[in-house]
Fold this protein.
Amino acid sequence: MKIPLIHTCKRLKERGVVGINRRNAEYTLKYNKRKLYPLVDDKLRTKQLAILEDIAVPDLYDVVESQAQKKEMLDILKYYNDFVIKPARGSGGNGILVISGKSKDMFRKLNGVLMAPEELNYHVSKIISGMYSLGGHPDKALIEYKVQFDPVFEVISYLGVPDIRVIVLFGVPVMSMVRLPTRLSDGKANLHQGAIGAGIDIATGKTLTAVWRNDIIYEHPDTGYPVSGITIPSWDILLTISAKCFELTGLGYLGVDIVLDKKLGPLILELNARPGLNIQIANQTGLLKRLEMVEKHYKDLKNVTERIDFAKQNFAHGKII
Ligand SMILES: Nc1ncnc2c1ncn2[C@@H]1O[C@H](COP(=O)(O)OP(=O)(O)O)[C@@H](O)[C@H]1O
Ligand SMILES: [Mg+2]
């Protein structure tokens, strides 16, 4: 069943929804030092940073920075049956190629279509030339481990890997959602590509209502399974990783994206210094009151455990703040 979001927008305003101007003026510009942005705007740097702090990330197989390195890339790829190619400075799922298998010397995309090595080479050339990078600057192509998603997502994900976004202010998890790939999003969990966003109760890790394009939905459009009431596995670990990203980066206001691998558990996929605001729609709740509460109390919270307890106590679903 679908309920048009338009009816809920007014209510959202009353609930303290943060708009782009307020987010920029009062959160990102105020709490995120410009010199720290490169740590999260380049996925290679984020990976290196996380590894140094013993936070798990998908394994890196290769980095291609020049046309000359592409030959070596094809040699390296002989050893891997599946992998993901992405622009280091990309966003919104653009330029990401998920290879799920091989047939002779051809590469199989998630949708089953085969790609010749020359096509793969061409895709990497486009990444390097900056076609998908912030500001169109020359970029690097990262080739990494293809995450095998946790079985809990089997019936509520179409082909691709869901990711879990947590908004963190001064190390306190404030709001969360899981993004579920659909046929439309082509195996990527980006909302603009057509993925579903389902709010998550910070206290329990259970999914709430979900939003797809402009509608509230209850079932996954491709699989037909209910998307609410699913408990995200390893929820406390996920909150702990998110909270630690404050110390990891020094960024006060942060979006942490985590994927859950069947064998490896939670892995950081990327960090965002200007996280989007549609998490509020997925949760049917504004961020403002939660953010103000953290601003008021974070100095009293001594460590990660206290920050998580604070979040669970104050931001539990159904708690009026
Ligand atoms: N290593 C991976 N394994 C499987 N799927 C991935 C991997 N990396 C990215 N994806 C898919 O692509 C989406 C976007 O990837 P991400 O690294 O967050 O880039 P972007 O900055 O473009 O959002 C993810 O949400 C996920 O669905
Ligand atoms: Mg992403």
In short: The chain has a mean pLDDT of 94. The chain has two domains: 3-56+149-314, 60-144.
